[in-house]
Write a structure and sequence with these properties.
By secondary structure, the chain is of the alpha+beta class. The chain has 2 helices and 8 strands; from the N terminus they run E-H-E-E-E-E-H-E-E-E. The model has no long low-confidence stretch (mean pLDDT 95). The protein has one domain: 2,3-Dihydroxybiphenyl 1,2-Dioxygenase, domain 1, CATH 3.10.180. The protein is globular. It has an 8-stranded mixed sheet with strand order 2-3-4-1-5-8-7-6. The two termini are 13 Å apart.
């Protein structure tokens, strides 16, 4: 079961420059780490990932909150999705994975 799309992650090459632009738009980030800068926008999160391009991100990816990432991943792959990034722990118990749909669009999954 999904809990809705609640996070969009943007790959950035220059984290400091991107943080300045998004801070001007959204205010100060709630988390500011060398590996991720996150902003809360109501119930949504916008994250800046300085390693996104190196991990194959070509643009922003929306992440759907799910109760069971392994089960959801299996269902999407069985339905014809292609694995782009397997389940991995990104810290604090947060698990993410990415699937590509039939048209090449990324679908991010997030548990935790």
């Amino acid at each position: 079961m999904t809990t809705g799309m609640n996070t969009v992650v943007v790959p950035v090459r220059d984290l400091a420059a991107a943080k300045a632009v998004y801070s001007a738009l959204l205010g100060e980030p709630y988390t500011d780490q060398p590996y991720y800068v996150g902003f809360r926008v109501g119930e949504q999160e916008l994250g800046l990932d300085p390693h996104g391009h190196a991990q194959g991100m070509k643009g922003p990816v929306g992440f759907w909150g799910v109760d069971d990432i392994e089960k959801t991943l299996a269902v999407l792959l069985e339905a014809g999705g292609t694995l782009a990034q397997p389940v991995r722990d990104v810290g604090g118990g947060m698990l993410i994975a990415t699937v590509i749909d039939a048209d090449g669009n990324p679908i991010g999954l997030k548990q935790g």
